[in-house]
């Protein structure tokens, strides 16, 4: 199965929607250990992403993701902007010029994004960072794809592993 650039745009719109629905909860979580602005910052950044999508939806997937990267870096405060922005920047490099992706290419895109987060954040597994969720989830997705599972099956497995990492 291939993933189209339209599906990538829909995925980004869905991310923005989930962040909007959970911005208060994300901010509340951040209040316990941070400065209580994570949900607000992510919401602001992804609202800006939504304004950029119509300008790039006719571009290749790499260009779309690069635009998202630059938007997040410039609009999300704290460490989150550079971390999420680097994820999307590295992902964009992996799929430059692509109009659609195979499951294996999606796995490589996700892995490149995680590698960017590791490099930017200097975190290791077990440090109680976003890496504890992202890394095992991406590995689970890649493994499921290698074993021939469908995109949906691979994503379901990835979500289950992400929830374990989160907890």
Describe this structure in words.
- The structure is a single chain.
- The protein is mostly helical and 167 residues long.
- It has a single domain, classed as DhaL domain (Serine Threonine Protein Phosphatase 5, Tetratricopeptide repeat), CATH 1.25.40.340.
- The chain is 77% helix and 2% strand.
- Strands 1-2 form a two-stranded antiparallel sheet.
- α1 packs antiparallel against α2, α2 packs antiparallel against α3 and α3 packs antiparallel against α4.
- The longest helix has 29 residues.
- The radius of gyration is 15 Å and the shape is globular.
- The termini are far apart.
- 34% of the residues are buried.
- The mean pLDDT is 95.
Percentage of helical residues? over 70%
Most strands sheet: 2 strands, antiparallel
How large is the count of helical segments?
Answer: 7
Q: Mind telling me the C-alpha Rg?
A: 15 Å
Architecture blueprint of SSEs:
Elements: E1 3-4, H1 5-33, H2 38-56, H3 61-75, H4 80-94, E2 100-101, H5 103-121, H6 131-146, H7 151-166
Antiparallel strand pairs: 1-2
Helix pairs in contact: 1-2, 2-3, 3-4, 4-5, 5-6, 6-7
Gist of the model:
By secondary structure, the chain is mainly alpha-helical.
């Amino acid at each position: 199965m291939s993933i189209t650039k339209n599906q990538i745009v829909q995925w980004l719109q869905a991310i923005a929607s989930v962040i909007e629905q959970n911005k208060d909860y994300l901010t509340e979580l951040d209040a316990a250990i941070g400065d209580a602005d994570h949900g607000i910052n992510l919401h602001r950044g992804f609202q800006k992403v939504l304004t950029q999508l119509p300008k790039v939806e006719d571009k290749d997937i790499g260009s779309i993701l690069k635009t998202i990267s630059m938007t997040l870096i410039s609009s999300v405060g704290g460490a989150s902007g550079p971390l999420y922005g680097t994820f999307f920047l590295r992902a964009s490099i992996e799929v430059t010029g692509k109009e659609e992706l195979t499951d294996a290419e999606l796995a490589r895109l996700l892995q490149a994004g995680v590698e960017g987060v590791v490099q930017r954040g200097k975190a290791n597994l077990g440090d109680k960072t976003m890496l504890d969720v992202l890394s095992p989830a991406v590995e689970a997705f890649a493994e499921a794809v290698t074993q021939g599972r469908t995109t949906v099956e691979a994503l379901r497995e990835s979500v289950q592993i992400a929830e374990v990492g989160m907890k």
